[in-house]
Structure formats: structure tokens, C-alpha cells
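Section handout 9: paired folding examples.
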Amino acid sequence: MIFYWFKKIVSIFLSPIVIFLVLLLLAYIARRFDKLRLSRAVRTTAYVFLLLTTMPFSSKWLIAPLESISPPQNLTSSEVAHISVLGCTSYQQPQWPIVSRLADCSIKRVTQGIVLAHKFPDATLYFSGLDSVTDKTNAELGAELAQIMGIDEKRIVVINGTRDTRSEAQYIKARLGQGTQLLVVTDASHLPRSLALFKEQQLKPIGYPADYLANKIYWGSLFNYVPDYRSLKRSQRALYEYVALAWTHIRLYFVQNA
């Protein structure tokens, strides 16, 4: 649990805005110590960094390598017995409609899971995600939406109590056993890390992306060079996933060579 909260705190500092403010603070400190050349260099770096992380062309270029996994084609029903829809975010607002209580990332993952469940009518659908103190969990909301959209309750398994992707993979292994093949539904940028964590549990995951952030770059379009909040969000997602993916591979290296 301590490590979980440590990761959450670290993720705050991977925000481009936070990095920008930290760089400005360092520039101010350098100036106070009469390091004027250093102060100017750090301040310039801060502004260039903020500009690049808020422009469409650079943010798309940054996240595109993470989204290289395409939806698998020509899968047969015999190959798909289990579909794991990884959790994202939900809101503790019971008075809201269910589609508003699930964040955009959750809606896309759940919807893609439902589409796959209709395509493979014999597959079991697994929903997971963070628990809630006062409201339904992310997993329960996903399962509820799936039933509304025509999926039989008997085909749905709700996984409560997971904190992150690794614990989701551990639960799936405990329930299905190692060597089980399954579809893993999540954001395209989240798939490389998710597949690594599921493979760590000796499972056979097939990645199925539910959301892409890096659409095609039209270099001749002026809008590719105008900063916007979507690009900031895209850059923040990319920075988080690169650091998390690097940490995952480092940890797996030491585990495998211990």
C-alpha cells in the first residue's frame, strides 16, 4: 500500500505543468545565488518544454510509439474465452447518469469490452478497477453498463479490491491459472505496460486498444503548431507511461535475475 501511494505521488511530478513550475523555481533559486547564466538557461528550458508539450505535433510524436499496437484481426471464438477490461476512473456521484459517472477512458474501455463480448458470445467479461468508499466501484459501474447494453449477468465477473494494473493481472492469474490466453482491453498507450505485467504472471495476453490519442499529423495544418489543452493531456499521459514502463522493465529484470 505504501508503494502504491508512492507511485501516485511520483505521478504528480510527471505533469508538464508541475515540471515547468519546478524549472522556474530552480531558475529563481539560481538567480538568487547570482548564477545568472544558469538561471537564464533553466528558464529558457522551462518555456521550451512547456511549448513542446502543449503543441499537437510534438505531443503526438511523443506518444505515438506507445500506441503502436493495433487491434488483432481474424480472432476466432475458440481463441477468445476471456476478456479483461482494465479499470480507469469513475466519479462518486450517485445522482449522475451512469455514462457520466464513468470517465472518458473508462467509457471507451467498457464500450470496447462490450463490443468484443457481442462478437465472442461465449467469452467471459472481467471488469476491474479501484474501489469506492461511498459509491459503486469502477468495476461495478462497468458491469452495470454492460448489462444495460445487453450482456448477460452470468457472463460478467466483477473484480473489486485491485489498486493498479499489476494487481489486476495477479487476480486474473489467481482465478484462471497461468498459461491462460485472454484479451486485455485498455488505452493504446497503456497496452505495452499492461501486456508486460500480464506476461509477468505467466498469462498469454492479447492486447486490444480501446482509445488512441495520437491521430495522424497533418504537417501542413496550422493547428498542429497552436498549443492546446488536449496536447498537454497527451504529453502528460506519454510521460507517465514512459516512466512507468521503464520502471516495470527494470523491476522485471531484477526479479528475473535475482
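Moving on to protein 2 of 2.
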Amino acid sequence: MAAMNMLLYASIERLPLGIAVTLDFLGPAAVALVLSRRIREAIWALAALAGVVLIAGPGGYFDLSGFLFGLGAGFCFALYTVFAEKVGKADDDSIATLALSVAFAAVLSAPFGIPQITSVSAPQWSMLALSGLIGVALPYVVDTLAAKLSSARVIGTLFAIDPAVGSLVGWVALGEQLNALALTGIALIMVTGAVVAWTTASTSTRADTGSRRGSPRPSTADHASALDPGDPAPSTAGRV
């Protein structure tokens, strides 16, 4: 969590918001591609790569450090996607686990933040508090609950909206203008991530259903052997 946020913010300092968020989104998209293991999804991977080339190509918004920070955030986002689903489905008190992980992330990031305390003005503290609420606490709680209540297919598809939202916020709030090639690349990456996440989870669901259907049903002998030898045999009296 801490690494993902710090790397993403470092990327936003150097790239337009929509592009930084798109690079970050490549993380969960890569997770879906790795889980797919099919040639068709490999083609989608090439489509996502083409989207990155459109963003960073001639006349694009290439900044080496910004791209490295964005891809690093995407790598951390990929790990977060995997662990969030495991924690959300395996832990009955997933919110408490999330709170503990956020506190641990704060401790890890403290050496980077403490030296900057003296340079923060009074109005900036309220902005930091708001950023912590809507940028850390609220989204992580929603992600954890979504992983617990929904499926990886739905979550992966919803993650695909992030680049569009980032581009829209960057345009409305920051006045950032993206050229046609960059917007096309962002759209291509979004569609790729959504399709791969949906098809991968769908294939996994069908495989699980097939394995359950193919499992042998317990026989009468298995039921009989499960009875305690000391228990009386079930009576057949009264049956017609």
C-alpha cells in the first residue's frame, strides 16, 4: 500500500494524471493476463502494450522517471490485487486486518514523511487529511468489501474505469489536455484490462463448476462406513 501510493504520487508529479493512473492500472491487468494462460489473452497483452506505445510515442508524454514510478506503482497494485482478494475472502474481520495493514504502511512510510513536516503549511494539513480519507481509507475499505462480496471478474472490470476517471479528473480539476493518441492508448488499455479480467474469471468459474460436477458422489458404503460402530443401526420399522 505505502509503496503503491508513494510511487503513484511520484509518477503524477511527472506525468498527466490520466497517464499515471493508466500505468498503475497495468498491474491488475497483468495479474489477469498471467492467470489466463491462453493465446487469446496474449493477444490482448500485445494490445495493452500498443496502448502504452501510443501514450509514450512521438508527440506523447514520455518521461522515463515518471514511467518507471508509474510501472512500479502498477507492480505494487498487482500485489495488492492478489492479497486483497485473499484477505477479503479468508478473513472474517477483513476491515480490522485492513486497518492493521494501513497502520503498518504508515510506519514504513514515516521516514519519508517526517522530514517534510516543517515544510507543510496550516492549510495543507486539511488537504492532507482529506487526501488520507478519500485517497487511502475510503477506497481501501471499499476494495476490501468488494473483494469479500463480489467476484474477481467484477472487481477487475471496475478497476478498468480508473484510467478514464483519472483522465477526467486531470482535465476538469487540473486543466490537463491529452492528445488523441494518448486518449486512444488509454482507451485501448482500459478495454484490454476489462476484457481479460472478465474472461479470465469466467473461465475460472466454469473450471470450478466442472470439477465439482465431475467429482464422484459418495456411495452407500461410504455413508455406512461413516457410521459409528457403536451406534445402533437405523431402524426400518414403520416404513411401508
